[in-house]
Amino acid sequence: MKRWMLTTISICVMVGTIFANVQGTVKASAKANDYPIVLVHGLTGWGSDEMLGVFRYWGGLGDIQKHLNNQGFTTYEGVVGPFSSNHDRAVELYYYIKGGTVDYGEVHSRKHGHKRFGKTYPGVYPEWDGTSKIHLVGHSMGGLTSRELANLIAEGCEEERAYYEQYPEVGISPLLAGQANEGIHSITTIATPNNGTSFAEDKNLFVPFMKDLATYMASASGVVPNRNLYDFKLDHFGLSREKGEFLTPYMHRVFNSSIWNSTDLAHIDLSVKGVTANRKKLKTRSDIYYFSYTGQTTERIPLVNIHRPLLTTNPLFMPSTAFMIKYTDRHSTPVIDSAWAPNDGLVNVVSSPYPFGDKAKPFDGRPNKGEWSYHPTMQGWDHLDLTGIGTKLPSQVNRLYLDLAKNLQALPQ
Hints:
The chain is of the alpha/beta class. The protein has helices at 2-29, 64-70, 86-98, 106-112, 141-155, 158-166, 174-177, 203-221, 247-255, 266-270, 272-277, 318-326, 394-409, and strands at 37-40, 75-78, 100-103, 117-121, 134-139, 184-190, 289-293, 295-296, 298-301, 306-309, 360-362, 372-374, 378-379.
């Protein structure tokens, strides 16, 4: 009798556990909102119509956007300047989604010596407004760009407003005036230097690396010299691609330009000092859900406090990985010490989960607006693995983004 009772109880517990798990799965996968997902690429990124149309930033030879759409999650790819500053990228992202002519701002464009107006876009989601919201998912610098866009929508740009009040004839865009009402329901950062990357502290190393990274991407895609399907999107700096211009001379012309002395480019905004100086424009907002994913391609050598790159690390990242393992700066704010050694090849692990000082907790399935929910560090995933350009199987990458999408659309409206 005792044995029968114990067996019965065990079966009940098992059934109850299975039922609870099923209920949990249903609850987690149920759509509480149908807001579209917008993927925002990072450094050296490109659109789906570039790189011959077969090699994608989001998926490599696979296609994360297509996979999510096939699974019922409306997904778009945002396209912004691959080497531009956060301000320029955030403004471009707004118009790419909403539609219209890019307006970088009168003050900003004068200050940095480039054209005020950029490309005109039809908009991938022109109905975007205060009720038809979006989820922004940014990889690497795309996370910082998403955070800056959220701040522009909420507050506009103070220096542009002040100038417009004095010279109303120049005009001002609703975005920079702080009159935009487009809603962002959530921001997810993936391998984002939310507190900067120590690798960008050395411009003399980082700028050549950006060139190497762009070359690597073009080579991986099969782009040949006489078919330049990669656009630096620096037209506002006067660096438009000339008709019929080959890839190699185009890249040479861009990277030998004087624009790299400008403070309006990516390497400034990606550094620890740059992110720290820009914190006012990267606020964690109380009406938005925040999530983060972090990769790591280094390991600690047992018994000694020394880190080394994993053998599976992309060879492109070996120099940057080694640099970040060794680099320290005790005069920096925040201090860059040995805690910054673990990295994903381009971003320090300690910098990725959430902005220092902001409310945050490990992801537990119960997120709160204005508070970061960070996922466990993904050991063995380097910076490009997290977008499907690496050693990870497409099934692994697709599962990551499918789980991410389910989490976002389970959020209450």
